[in-house]
Amino acid sequence: MGTSFRNNLFMLYRGDYTYIPEASKFSAQGLCVGNMKFAGFQVAYLIWGFMIITIILFIICFSMGVFILSLIFGYIDWLVNKVLQVWPGVLIGIALVIIQKILTRFVFLQGNAQHLLLDNRRFYFITTYFMFFYNIFLGIVSCFMRIIKSVAVGILLLARLDSSLMPRKFERFDPGFSAYIGYIQMEMAQTHPVVLVFIQLLYTLSRERKSIGVMTMSTNESDIILMSSESETLQVVIPMKKVVRNRSAQFNWLVIYTLLQNPSVRMYRKGFIQLKRKAEKEGLKIPISDKPITDFDLVKLQEEMERENKP
After folding, report:
1. Which of the 8 DSSP states describes residue 171?
2. Is the pLDDT of residue 190 over 70?
């Protein structure tokens, strides 16, 4: 679990979302709640996993014991009869699978099955047509094996929250995996090394600018001269050379320059993500592009959809 978490976290640092979905597919509230649930869910799932695996192992061991006792006391006639009834079908099924693999490797694919390029197309289509009937029975057995494998994998991975027991499109319905997603996404958001270094650089630069500003103000304050006489005191102020800077405008200019130099960053900005979610709620399809999207563009898309829906 620890190794898997570390590998997944490093993949998120690199921007690789092969195993962990993107944070933009979930709400920030859901991720935060999942982060809070993770520790408790992990303990509860470990308890359930231990109990279920213990029961399954007991049933398997008990069944093996009964089978061994049956062999010892000679109660195997029914088993021999069942094997004699079933073995022809099993043998034919295995032979069909082997034949299809051999034909695929040496007849249907070019380059000794190294490339997905068909050869002997007519023979391939004829074989597929005649194998259709036999593959129905193979599919029945395969479906049964699929159920057994799914149950076995589900039981073995029940205590692990880093692996979803559901397909990729239905991972949101797995509460344990959703809690893990919230935990690792929160960890990534708070400990991303690139973000931390970037913020540290900004903080250091801000402190340096503030210190320079304080030094400038202290220097300018010394330009105030008091001229006193017997009757009155005259205060003469020498104009200070201040450079008025609009920090907000300067920051916006730097943001624009960064976006112009890195267009792909636009898709990860907060405004783009919010507009994308808004469009998805309204049923609008936005093409994936690095161009900025505004509310005006959403209105245009909405109008186009209404025109298409009109009879």
Report:
1. G
2. yes
CB-neighbour burial class of residue 30 (10 A; exposed 0-12, middle 13-18, buried 19+): middle
Q: What angle separates helix 270-281 from helix 295-309, to the nearest 10 degrees?
A: 20
**Which residue's structure tokens are 């998120």?**
12
253: which 2 tokens? 């200019």
Are the C-beta atoms of 240 and 222 separated by less than 8 Å?
no
Q: Which residues contact 288 (CB under 8 A, 6 or more apart)?
A: 267
Residue type for position 269? R
pLDDT band at 50 (very low <50, low <70, confident <90, very high): very high
C-alpha to C-alpha distance for 77 and 81, rounded to whole angstroms: 6
Given a cut of 50, is residue 142 above it in pLDDT? yes
> How far is residue 158's CA from residue 116's CA, in Å, rounded to a whole number?
37
Average pLDDT over residues 222-242: 43
Per the CB < 8 A criterion, the answer to whether 233 and 53 are in contact is no
Task: Look at the alpha carbons of 279, 282, 286, 292 in this order and tell me if their dihedral is positive or negative.
Answer: negative
Q: How far apart are CA 232 and CA 230, in angstroms?
A: 6
Q: Which two tokens stand for residue 229?
A: 């006489």
pLDDT value of position 244: 44
